[in-house]
Amino acid sequence: MVFSMGEHLEDYESRFTKRPISNKERAKSKKFAKIGESRSEEIFVDAVDDKSRAIVVEGSHGRFKIFFNDKILSNVKLRRGIDFKYSRFIVPGDYVRLAKDDLGYCISNIQKRTSKLSRRDNARMGANMAECEHVIAANIDAAVAVVSAKNPPLHAKVIDRYLIMIQSSNIEPIICMNKADLAEGHEDGLLKEYERLGIKCVKTSTVKNEGIENLKKIISGKMVVFIGHSGVGKSSLINAISGNLIAKEGEVSEKTGKGKHTTTSSVLYKWKENSCIIDTPGIRAFGMWGISKDELHLYFPEFDKYITLCKYDNCLHNHEKETDCGVKLALSKGELSKNRYDSYIRILEEL
Hints:
Blueprint: H1 39-44, E1 53-60, E2 63-68, E3 71-78, E4 95-101, E5 104-110, E6 116-125, E7 128-138, E8 142-148, H2 156-167, E9 172-178, H3 187-195, E10 200-203, H4 212-219, E11 223-227, H5 234-242, E12 267-272, E13 275-279, H6 304-307, H7 326-332, H8 338-350
Parallel strand pairs: 3-5, 8-9, 8-11, 9-10, 11-13
Antiparallel strand pairs: 1-2, 1-4, 2-3, 4-5, 6-7, 12-13
Helix pairs in contact: 2-8
């Protein structure tokens, strides 16, 4: 067995099926539709025996790098007879069963996922554009939202988007503020807001080699995914943790202050036994997947005790008068973070 990263819990999902979220339980019970109804699809999604399973490292255009028996196999394709379209659903972190044909190893089955990290994308469906789920990584124990103290600047609204994206997938969130050597002091107050919500926060600087050991302790023994805007230093962090597994790092554009993309697709790195990091391309913009307006408040738990004071059961805490909305009244009294409330309103308007 190469890795031990969890049991077989969840059904493999449809790219075009939204996940219902349960009230107050913050989507801890999830139901996914299978990709389709045909016999070939039922065969493709299967429990994979620990002895024969391998893990997807990277994929592009139906060709995959697979880690199996302590070796990297390149140019692995789907088994003959499996529709090529299923290659789109395989992502780093997926466990697969390998078979052999006359060309070498091929993927015959994929294991049911324990978790997945997704965002909303638009895809062309015939003549129309439709919302679809873009799965970034699978079988994740924790997700590290990497932000930077500067270049690009630190924004609460960015952190809140990442947290919703992570928590809606039932994955443990970790906030990592990189480039801490550029911090000006006010950043600590923002991070403390999230620590009060029970979210782990860590400050790192790859320039001064600060906070790296702390981050390594937090993610050791886990399958984690690093997400963040381009330029925040995800790749440099992974190099600091792993000993330079990534050959070339991105730069920050002097003109825009934004990162120049280095990672173009998600890639899995094993940095020690039973410890993996999935690096992802820099995210400049993304939408929420599977979250409705009336569910959004579930990801702002500090609202809970004030929601019971709202006059209307369907209150969205946006246009109501303070006297009718417990959340807005608490905000006016300084009992809620304005940063968090502003994030809530901005995201609500996009749903």
